[in-house]
What we know:
The structure holds three protein chains of three kinds. Chain B is α+β, with helices and mostly antiparallel strands.
Amino acid sequence: MENYTPQSEDFEFITDRDITVDKNFASQGYWKGVAIHFFRNRFAVVGLILVAAIIIFAVFAPIVSSYGYQEIISVTDSAGKEITAKSLYPQIAGSAQNLFSDRTFIFGTDDMGRDLWTRTWQGARVSLIIAFVAIFIDMLIGMSYGLISGFFGGMVDNILQRFIEIAGSIPTLVIISILAIFMDKGIGLVIASLLITEWIPMSKIARAECLKIKEREYVLASRTLGAGSFHIIFKQILPNTIGPIITQVMFSIPVAIFTEAFLSFVGVGIVLPQCSIGSLIEAGFNNVTILPYQILPPICVLAILMLGFNLIGDGFREALAPKLEDM
Amino acid sequence: MKKFFSGQWKVVSGKGSGVSGKWKIFFLALFTFHLSLFMTGCGGSDSAGDGKLSVMLGSNVVSLDSAQATDSASFEVIADCIDGLMQLDSEGKVIPALAESYDVSEDGKTYTFKLRDAKWANGDDVTAEDFVFAWRRHCQKAEEYSYIMGNTVACVKNADAVIKGDDPKNLGVSAPDNKTFVVELDAPVPFFLSLMCFPTFYPINEKFYNTVDSGSYGTSPETFLSNGAFALTSYIPGTANIQLKKNDSYWNAAQVSIDGFQYQVVSSSDNALTSFKNGTLNVVSINGNQVEHVKKDAELSKNLNSFPSGYLYYISFNQDAKNHHAGALANVNLRLAISNAIDRESLVDNFVMSGAKATYTAVPVEFAPNAKTGKFFAENQKQFADYVGFNVDKAQGFLKAAKSELGKESFELNLIYSNDGDSAAKVVQAVKSQVEENLPGVIVNLQPMPKAEYLSNITSNNYDIALVDWAPDYNDPMTFLTLWTTEGCEIAEHWSNADYDKIITDCSTGDLAADYDARWDAMYNAEKILLENAVIAPLYTNANTVLISPNVTGIDFHSVCIDRVYKNVKLQ
Amino acid sequence: MTKYITKRILMSVLTLFAIIFVLFVLIRIMPGDPFPVERMSAEMILQKREELGLNKPILVQFADYFSMLMSGSFGNGTSLYNGAPIKPILTACLINSFKIGVLSIMLGTIVGLTIGIVAALNRGKFLDGFCTVVSILGVCIPSYVFMIFLQYFFSYKIPFFPYFFDPSKFLFSAIMPAMSLSLFATSTIARFTRNEMIEVLNSDYVKLAESKGLYGFELIRKHVFRNALIPIVTVIAPLVVDLLTGAMVIEKIYGINGVGKLMVDAIAGQGVDYNYVLALGIVFSALYIGAMLVLDILYGIIDPRIRLATKEG
Lengths: 327, 572, 313
C-alpha cells in the first residue's frame, strides 16, 4: 500500500452530480455591475447627458452650420449696403428684434463678424480633441510606467519612483514655461505640456493597483505555469487596474480642458483664427463689459463640460467601489 | 452742465533762432498738437478720482535707463523725470530745457549749448560732463536705440565707430567747462535740435551712476536720479503701478502745479474703459470696440479725444530667397497681388475702428508737413494708386502673372505679428481672410509671438510676411524712407535698389540736402520706386483715442519723441 | 517624531537639489543664446558667452550657479528689465504673491471646511444640496473668469473694492483676488471634507462613541473631525501650486506685482529671460516642496500611526 499509484478508475467525472450554482448573480459580470451602479446614480447620468450633448454639438454643429468658423460674414443693412456683421447680439430669423430678417446668429457674432454659434462648437471640438488625445497618451504612458514600477518592485521601482518624485515636484507652470520658451505656440505646445504633466497621477494609481493585484493567487498561478513578466503585466494585471484608471481619466479630462483654456488665455495656446474654448474666452474678455454676450457661450460650455466630467468621474468611482451610496 | 471742447490741430512752423542754413524753418516744424481743453460750468465731478491724477500706461516700462529704453512707455516716464537739452512746448515747438542758449556753427556741424543752473534731485549741479558721460555710454553700450546717434539720424561725429567698439573718448562730444556742452556732427542735420528732446540724448549723473550697483541703475526710486519735473516714489521693474511726485529741486518747479501722479499699466482696452467710467483712472487710451461704444454714449463721448499718432502699420515682404517658400515673394507680381487684394477701408472701418486712416503711401497720413506749403507729405493718397489700392481684378491679374512666372499654383505664406495688443490680432485675421478670399491659391498662416521674439525674427530676416508698425522718431519723411535702403534699418526686407539708395543718400547727406523743394520731390520719387516694387504694402495710420476726465487739463500730446507730457497739467 | 521630521527634511532638500540641477541643465541645453544676438557681431557674441561662462562644461557652470545660489543671489537677468539683479525684484513680487496666496489658502480652507462639515451633518437635506452646488461651481469655473465677474460687479457696478490692486490698501484690495484664487481650493476641500466626514460618521467607533452618550460638538471635535482631517490635508498641498497658475492671469488682470506676472513677463514679455525662468522655476519648486514638507509633518502630528511607522522602520 505504500507505493500505491492512483489508477484511472479511482477518478470519476462529476458532471452527473448536482452542483449548486447561484442563479441570481451568475450572469452578472464585473462591468455589468459597474454599469448598473453607475446608471443608478442620478448625478452621474446627468453628467453623462451633459457631456454627450456637448460632444454631439461639437461634432455636428460646425458641419451643419451655414457659416464657416473662420468666415467673416457680410450682411445687407437697411440701406442696402454690404456691411460686416460684426458684434451682433444674438439674432433669430423671423423675430421682431432681428436686424437682418433672414439671418440667424444664435449666439450672435464676434467683433470680427464671425458666427459665434459655429465658433463656440468648433472651439469645443478643438478643446475636446486636445483633451482626449493628450489624456489617452497620458493614460498609456502612465499605466505602463506604473505597472512596470509596481510589478518589478525593488531597484527598478526605487529608481522609477525617485524619478517621479522629482518630476512631480516641479510645478506644472514651470514645465509649461520652459516648453513655451522653445516650442512654437499652438496646439503642439498645449498637448506637450499636458503630456508631460498629466501622466504622473495615472502612473501612481496604476502602481498602487499593481502592488495590490500582483499578490493575488491567479497571478501566482500564472507565473507558476511559466508566463513571462510582460504577459502577466498586460494580460493579467492590466485588465484589473482599468477601473481606477478610467476614473482618473474622467478627472484628468477636465484638467486638460482647463489647462488648454488657461494656456490659450495667456496667449501661448491656440493660434487665431482657429479657436478653442480658451481663445474664445480670451477674445470675449477683451470686450466683456460692453459686449458681454460674447464671453458667455464659451464659459457656459466650459462649465458644463467641467461639471459633466466631474459628475461622471464621481459616479464611476462610486460604481467601482460601491460602499457609501449602497449601504 | 459740463461743456467740453476737444482739442484742435495746430500745425506749427516755428521760428528758429541762431541756426544758419535753409533748414532753420524746417527743423522746428515739428508738428504736434496741443490739447486745449476748456471746461466751463459746474459739475459734480463723478468721474474724477480722489483729487489725484491717474494715467493709464498701455504697456510695461521696459527700462528707465535711457540707453536701453526702446518703447514709448519708457520714454514717457524717463521724460517725466529727466530733462534734456531741449523740450517740446505745449504747441510742439522745440524750446530750450536744460540748455539756456545754443550756438550753431556756419557749416551747421558744431552745436554749442550753454547749460542753465539746474540741479539733480540729490543736490548735484547738472553739468556738461553729465551729457558727455551719458552720450558716450549710450554709444558704447550699443543698445537698440544707439543707431539714433549714428549717421542715419543725428550724425554725431564718430558715433558709428564707437558703436562698433571704438574708444568712446573719440565721440564728437566735449565739455570745455561745466556749463558748456559741444557736439560735433559729421553732416549738418536739419532736425538736430528736435532730436535733443529725445530721451536717448538725456544726461546721466556719472557720480550717482557709479554709486549704484552694476546693472541696477534705474530699477528703483533709490537707483534713479531725477533732474526733471517729477521724481519716482514707487517703482520696480515690471510694476503695474508707478508713483511720481513733484521734484522740488526742478529748475522750473514753479511751472508744475500738481503734487504728483501715478501710472497704472492696463493691457486690456475694456479694463481701461471701465476704470475710466468708475473714476479709477483719469486718462485712458482705448481702441476698437470700446471706441465704438463710447461714440454711442452721449455723456462719455464728450471726453473722447483723438490724436494722430504717426504710427504706420504696414506689411513687410521678405524677399530673401532662402527664407520663404521657394523664393515666391521675390516675385514683384505676387507682392503687388497681395497689396491690391487688401481692402484697407474695410480694415479701418470694421476692425481697427479707433479713428485710424487707410494709407496708400509709405509715409503715414497727417505727418511731416511741408515747411513752405504746410501740406502733409502724404496729402495725396491717390498718388500711387497704380500700385497700391484695392482692386480684386487687378490683384488677380497680378497673381496670374506671378503664377505663370513662378510656375506654381499655390503659395503658402507665414505672417508673423506681435501679440501684445488685440488690435494687431484682428488686423491680421482680416488680412488673412481678405487675401485668401480674393487670391485663390494664396494661403496665409498666422504666427503670433511675444514682442521680443517678433522683433528678433524681423530683424534677423526670419519671416515671410510681417505686420510691422513703425513710429516716427523725428518729424521728417526720412524717418520712414530710410527703413528700406540696402543698409537699411533693422527690418530687413532683403530688397536692394541702387536708385533708391542714391536718392536717400542725396537727401540726407548729399547734394539735395540743401535744396528744400528738390529734396521733397526726390523723396516722392523714392517712395514711387518703393511702392511700384511693392516692397511693402502700407495699411493704415493709427490714431490715439484717449478719454480724459473733464477735471484734467493741460496734458500735451505729441506724435514724435514723447507721447505725453505732464508738466503743464492742472487738476480742478 | 524628530527622526521622522529630519528624514522628511533631508528628502526634501535632496529633491530640491535634483530639481535645481534638472532645471539648470534643461535651460542651458536649450537652443539659442540667453541674450539678444541680433545686433551683435560674431566677436561680441563670443565675448559675451565668455563673460557669462557659457563656454565652460555644463557641470562647472552648474557648480558656479549653485554656489551663487548658496550665497543668496539669483544672478542678473539676461534680457528682462535691462539685466538688473533678480533678487530684489523677485523678493518684492514674492511678498505680494505670498500674502495673497496665504490669504486665499486660509479663505479656501476655512470656507471649504465649513461648507463640507455643514453638508455632511445635513446629509441629504436642502443644505447638503446647496453646499454641493456651491462646491461644484468652484470646480467648473476658472478662477480668472470669476475674477473678471468680481471685478465687474464689485468694483464697477457697485464700486466697493478698488478697481486695480492698490499696494497702500493691501488687505482691502487683496480680498477680490484672494477670493477668486480660493474658489478652486474651497470647492475641492468642501467636497473632500464632506465625503470624509460622512465616512467617519458611519464608522463603528463613532457609533460606539454615540452609544456611550457622546453627542453634538464634543463628538465631532473628538472623534470625527480629527480623523476626517487627515485625507483633507493631502489635498491642500497641490492646491498651493494651483494658486500659482491661477495667479498668472489674475495678477495680470488686477495689476498685481507678483511672481505670476513676473513669469508671464519672463516667457512672453519684452524678452525671454532664461535666468528669470530658472530663478522662478527654483522658487516655485521650493515653495511646492516646502508646502509638501509642512503638510507631511502636520500629517504626522495629526495621525500618530505615521510617525510610529517610521520609528519602527
